[in-house]
Design a protein that fits this description.
This protein is α+β, with helices and mostly antiparallel strands. The strands form two sheets. The protein has a three-stranded mixed beta sheet with strand order 3-4-5, covered by helices on one side. Strand 1 and strand 2 form a beta hairpin. It is elongated, with a radius of gyration of 29 Å.
Length: 191
């Protein structure tokens, strides 16, 4: 296996969530159902009373259902449909974590989106000349939203703040500085 393919696998594992938990839970449930059916069948074969319900009795009742059995079957079917939808969503969903891979001359660096957001908030606070607590940011994918609470009486230039944040984020990776939204609150705070 080449070094490049190993590096790609490491990047993918760092950025995407594992589906092994959902698979393990599904297999445990399936094993429990199979063990129950096997146990009930063995108990019937040796003439012992069933643990929960005799499989033959369940089949006979299913062939001649009454109102109570139909209600139970509908409830079980509803639970199984919900479980099936959850498992299909888990199988289709890419399971991305809030991380991004940044190319570096030595390899790849994995950056959490909180670091990108913190970098954007720091750059915006410095450019706006406001205290550290007056800026916040959120980063999702390639877009970053910066919120600034200005100091009362001190004007804030959104365009220069946006340019500063874009430059700082582009220094990390050019993808991060592409979509930056700066929102300045109308009410300021006292210094």
């Amino acid at each position: 296996m080449s070094n490049g393919s190993v590096e790609r696998r490491i990047r993918r594992r760092s950025v995407h969530r594992s589906r092994s938990t959902a698979v393990a839970v599904s297999l445990v449930v399936l094993a429990l159902v199979a063990a129950w059916l096997g146990t009930e069948s063995v108990l019937r074969a040796i003439g012992r009373p069933p643990l929960f319900a005799d499989p033959q009795t369940v089949v006979d009742t299913a062939l001649r259902p009454d109102a109570a059995f139909v209600t139970v079957v509908e409830a079980v079917a509803g639970v199984l449909v919900v479980l099936g939808v959850v498992l299909v969503v888990l199988a289709i969903n890419p399971g991305r974590r809030h991380r991004s891979v940044v190319e570096h001359e030595r390899g790849a660096v994995v950056i959490d989106t909180r670091i990108v957001a913190s970098t954007a908030a720091n750059a915006a606070g410095t450019a706006a000349g406001v205290p550290e607590g007056n800026t916040s940011a959120t980063a999702r994918g390639r877009s970053t939203v910066v919120r600034i609470v200005p100091v009362t009486g001190v004007p804030v230039d959104e365009a220069s703040i946006r340019a500063t944040v874009e430059d700082r984020l582009s220094a990390l990776d050019e993808r991060f500085g592409r979509r930056v939204d700066v929102r300045v609150d109308e009410k300021g705070t006292l210094a």
